[in-house]
Give the backbone structure.
Amino acid sequence: MKSNFYKFSISILFICFCLQMNSQKAIDIADLMNLKSVSDPQISPDGKWVAYLTTEMDLKKDESQSQLWMISIEGGAAIPMTSKDFYSPSSPRWSPDNKYLSFLASKKNEKTQLYTLNRLGGDAEQITNIKQGIQGYEWSPDGKTFLLSIKDAKPEELTEDKKDDEKPKPIVIDRLQFKRDYVGYLDRFRVHLYSLKIGDSIPSQLTFGDFDDLNPTWNPNGTQIAFQSNRTENPDGNSNTDIWIVSSKNSSDDKNLIQVTTNGNSDTNPVWSKDGKTILYNTITDAKAMWYATQKLAMVSATSGEPKILANELDRNISKARFSDDGKSIFFIIEENGTSVLGSLDRSGKNLKRIIKGDFSISDYDLVGSSIVPLLTKSNEPAEVYNYEKGKLIKLSTVNDKLFENISKPTVEKINFKSKDGMPVEGFVVKPINFIATKKYPLILWLHGGPVSQYEFGFNDEAELFAANGYITLLINPRGSSGYGQPFSEALFADWGNKDFQDVMAGVNYIIDQGYTDENRLGVGGWSYGGILTNYVITKSDRFKAAISGASEALYRANYGHDHYQLTWELELGLPWENAKAWEKISPFNDVAKIITPTLWVGGSDDWNVPILNSEQMYQAMKRLGRETQLVVYPGEHHGLRRPSFIKDRYERYTTWFNKYLK
């Protein structure tokens, strides 16, 4: 009798499992548009609550909206602190006395202001009314004053006539670095620091001059503020930033500034020690390597002196460093080998540990006392807030869980192989839904931007969409990528489209050798440097049947003075009229006649990071050559698309283009 009952139970469980499998579906574009992103976890001073932001796309309004939430650090239901229509809050912070949540928000057609919200309930109170708005803020340690970052007001912003702000005016330019994507043409209106006592309406200016003062932070007793600034004679002509200190008392000039670091390279993101005697910060020690250089961690006396490089033997980027509450340890994120982990050091700089690591990636975190709350993403799960307690990760936020209940997830595997010259290379392969090893699938080589970035154990929306449509997706970290040490990244210096091309092609060959890829149905694409590397791939190889080049570059000398990289171009390639050969050597436009791959060119009309000029030139050349091609320009968009309807359109064009040529 027991045996028959056991067989019956197993049969029922099997039937339920099959029904569940049949009820699941592959992710589609509508699902991707319904995804919510999670950001900025903040633990309350008493360690009992975690605040965080969610952002979602609204296709009807064609805009993104953010919402502020609070959840117990022990788990449970999340509590909404703002409604969806509260003008997209950002930068949540707790008051030192634990009573208030503060945030930035901008009402429709108004500038960004500071608000506070009693966590026990009630309406948000607007704290600032600065005509030009504010850029950022921080509570003072005693909770009685706000530190504000405010950009100098333009004359029209100081008038009562708001319509005057929108009137077109002549743009007068006299700076060497004169434009920036998302910002526009650069002028002499700078970001300075101010203090505002709670109850006052007019802030007191603390820093002055033709410089931008960024990333400010209070010292523990609230008497001084550390910040980063490039205060050299020609800030646009170098990549230097130093750490400075200003008194938190009223000032009429910059004579009371203390320069803490004198490194000729980049010193950023200052953090005070708990005793106020030391400042922790990020530094670049190799100026010639530019953005290929490893971000180091350094510590220096707050009264200036010789800095100490911490964990100098660790050739990996370090970010978001901070002291533990007892001041004895330093925590930070380490970017390495296709993941980002939480590491720590003793204050002495010894005893390097990887505290939270695994097949996931940490993009942010907060800590209070012994509580650590990381923002963590997995291969098939967008970022969520977790609590790290007693060596275990406990999931707190469940923002996208309901959406994924009935969605089939692809298999994601980390792969290792060798490039043409024997260099070890890593990446990820994302297999289609219901993968069958004996079947031959079309493959999409999807390339990351940067180039100094990396694919990690994390949710990748394009790869998920391609897997749902029956594609193998290959995500490679070729040379130029971060996470594998400075020599690996710096291999691309003034030699784009060489070693990185070899690496990604070796990845393609590696996957073909596994036996489940149809080598006659290969696609390639990417955005930003992913688009640039796509251009190298299709000018150097005829193996691909379809390509998508998003926000890419092509004829580099044409970008000089048009994009916002004048300084880095000069450092890497020299002046274009003096070293034209170096510029032309890496320009894929010069090999456009070799392209036989049907190629979709995509970009934003207002992109000053990688101007649409490049895609227009490549499209024009391919069209003139009689090749299969199409150009899609998104009006009013910069380097990254923001309008939900355009994001949806791009997803649709990706799948339509690849389906047309690979299926």
In short: The chain is about 20% helix and 35% strand. The longest helix spans residues 2-23. The first strand starts at residue 36 and ends at 43.
